[in-house]
Specification:
2 copies of one chain form a homodimer. Chain A has 6 helices and 2 strands, in the order ααααββαα. With about 130 residues, the first copy, chain A, is mostly helical. At the A-B interface, helix 1, helix 2, helix 3, helix 5 and helix 6 of A face helix 1, helix 2, helix 3, helix 5 and helix 6 of B. The structure holds a DNA duplex (30 and 30 nucleotides). Chains A, B: It comes from Paractinoplanes deccanensis.
Amino acid sequence: MSSDDFMDALVQATFHVTGVLTRIGAENDLSLTQLRVFGILRDRRPRVTELAAYLGLDKSTMSGLIDRAERRGLLARDKNPHDRRAVDVFLTPAGHELTERLYAQVREALTPDLDRLRASLHENTP
Amino acid sequence: MSSDDFMDALVQATFHVTGVLTRIGAENDLSLTQLRVFGILRDRRPRVTELAAYLGLDKSTMSGLIDRAERRGLLARDKNPHDRRAVDVFLTPAGHELTERLYAQVREALTPDLDRLRASLHENTP
DNA sequence: TGGAGTTAGTTGGTAATACGAACTATCTCT
DNA sequence: AGAGATAGTTCGTATTACCAACTAACTCCA
């Protein structure tokens, strides 16, 4: 499988997974973007700007996004000890719990498509 | 690699690709959702409801989304010949051109991460 | 070492995105 | 023929997202 074929398959897989994430997010009163935030914070504690870069969003977009999730008790801010301008973002226990619950739903939703997805991303595809 | 491990890797890969798509969309004055629409319409001609289901969005969200893209000449609506309630959506030539241009940008942006992504999705990962 | 130039994050203004509820038109099925 | 279901739109509201402008803090070199 050529690199271009692999990347096309990956992008198609991404569209499929993103559709699933969007639907599961909506069912849990979360936007796709918020879901992405939780997925990233699951095992990271980035600064606001790093989070924005990873999401591909402007940092000004992050303020409101973080505000609303913080108001719901799902994540929190903390001053970065090395740079007093910087703000670290991380999941609260409630946020961690929610994230694991969401992941379980996503895994369940993806299971029926698993074989097809695996095949589409592996070498021996025409 | 277990199914759960594969799905976790796939979701992480999705987050990464989605970040790239978001950034490239923004650079071309397109939202992530519009980009997803183009990626789906690339080789399909679904009804509005089918498109909504694939995106994981409510059908009421589609109207405005399609309106704005149609106003920009990137996609078009057509009455479904078999069901007069239904509306088919498809890319215009300009939309096709833009989509191919975007795909080229995405492939280029993903190239540096290719080996890592491939490895993360393949069997022999710890 | 002091200040010019960067960088981190927020705020405010505007447009796009997204949902649910309510509506019209059409289809299905008995 | 008509009751109920389905396809799509419209409307009202909240969220998401950009840019420009701003403050605070950091860099670094002259």
